[in-house]
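tool_log.txt
---
The assistant was asked to compare two proteins side by side. It first ran the structure predictor on the initial sequence, then on the second. Raw inputs and outputs are pasted verbatim so the downstream comparison step can read them without reformatting.
(1)
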Amino acid sequence: MNFTPVQCACSTLGVPIRDPRGGIEWVFSLRSSVPTIRAIAIDVTTPGLRARDLSRSDRRDLAATLRRRELDLAGLDLFIPQEHFSDPSWAPRAIEVIGHTLELASELAPLVGGTSRALVSVHLPGDLDDSVARDLGANAERLGAILADHHPGAVERSDSFVVGIDPASVLMSGASPAKRATVAKALRLSDASDVGRCPVGGSGARLELSAYAAAASMNGAPHVTIDLRQLRDPAQGAIRAAEFWEQNSIQIG
């Protein structure tokens, strides 16, 4: 059986930064400890990095910064609170923001090059209206982008509207990340104990990393993105997660 190597990326979601571009420099700084981190997922809920904040010139400059730092774009993180989709006063705006972010991803990915993906990661409500889902998928397809839903019960709706997996969320829902990874097209690297999110491989961690890495290698996704949400020490969490990933990844030709 053939396994495809999966590159390690790191999200800026959950990273304490002082300015919008600080997350890029923060991820770049990790490479002195873990050179296997070769890509970045940018949290575009950060003021100054939202799609509406970035002119065409700003987008070209952002892509140039990533190229200089030799970081491919694993995608854009847009984790809008789920309640915004059920609140009539917020829902239209939330859908609009997803559309603008898909457009941003489709513009940035080819500018950065390499293994970059025009991918937008979201966590949609499980009861999202089917008509809204169809519109989101059609918009992603029109733009040549991919929308990845990281809800633990998400299903693939089209080639442009795919399943994403956040192991910590899956573990907390009582399911198996390794099983979910076989159908996911966007992969994150996170862990959970019985009390909530924790560092990968940390005290009480429940992720069966070798099984998850094997499933990830089989499904063809180019990146696994380290998710640092709710960690007390994001830098050490990222370094440890990357090291564990390298130790457990299966690369068999």
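(2)
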Amino acid sequence: MRKGSIIPCLLTALFLASLTGCQGPEGPPGPAATADNGSLEGFAANIKCGTCHTAEQDTNYFVEGRAYQWAQSKHAKGGDSERNSASCSGCHTTEGFIQRMGGGAATNQSAPSPPGCFSCHSPHQRGDFSLRKSTPVLIKSQIATVPDATFDYGPGNLCVQCHMTRDLNPKPDPTKSAPTDSIVITTARWYPHYGVQGQMLMGEGGFKFPDYAYQGNSIHTTATIIKQEGCPTCHMAEQVYPPNLGTGKAGGHTMNIRFPGEGGGEATLLTGCKQSGCHAAITTADFPGSSTAPVGAQTAIAANMDTLHRLLESRGWLETDQNSPNYGLVKIPASGKLVIKPAIKSGALYNYFFIEHDLSLGVHNTLYALDLVRSSIAELRKP
């Protein structure tokens, strides 16, 4: 060996010794690995990371592109993941939702993440991007004497695991119409929560007054493509550039219908609306839903909702103080109890929140929404 080669060898030996020669006593064994936590589901047998996580555009871009879309979604930006208690985390956090879909109860989440990729998919454990669950969903009725209903709209069934009403107490009752019948409301949040879209689409969940002639539902309730695909039919329709300029801002995994327009203002995703057999000539979401809404579904609903709002305010049932934390919600008097007689009229208050929280201004089910708001107005106008 040449003399000059001895020094590098000695340095290498010293380096290796430093890695192994200063070990202390071995510590106690750590806890066994577990997959009980909702965010640790394990991995499918023989799964290969490179199937998705590669530098090639046809695999990596598939994942990253949809992750970028999701980052523009309300799930990412407005999912209220801070609502991480056991009673809310089952929908407002990925971790709680995974627990629910696994058949367990959602628990408190100390470091929650908003509803994201792993809420709807479990690619590492399943080895694919299939939906966690797509079976029909039984939705409990929040109207007394009205039976529960089953939502069955294909992949949309997963959406409605959360986009449905929550338990309400006391429940409004369409049979309580006598002058002496009363309902006592003690919370400003007496409404069917914000996820009512499932019931609105299927024409269930609203309060119906016995003496009003209801027309039924819009075509969205029974259209073949919507029955097969559910919510993704419109909310996840992929745009193509050109001519559409909303790629990455609406549709896909953004699930957005409204998005910032290129020239300023707001644009609307209509790709799903223009599918074969649907609204080929549609140019706006404010589309005439029927002969009873010739000016456009959203315009008609907005006008009627404004009337209903004023009627509810005049009865003192809505909080009008803008400095109140309950502004716009149910107004609870100083006594702590809002008493409504006859109790049947509380159905108008219920319908107001049901339609408002649907967020579509009647697009999901125009005929049904119009009937609910108009029947509520008629009821409040009775002596």
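---
observation on (2): The radius of gyration is 27 Å. The CA atoms of residues 304 and 374 lie 7 Å apart.
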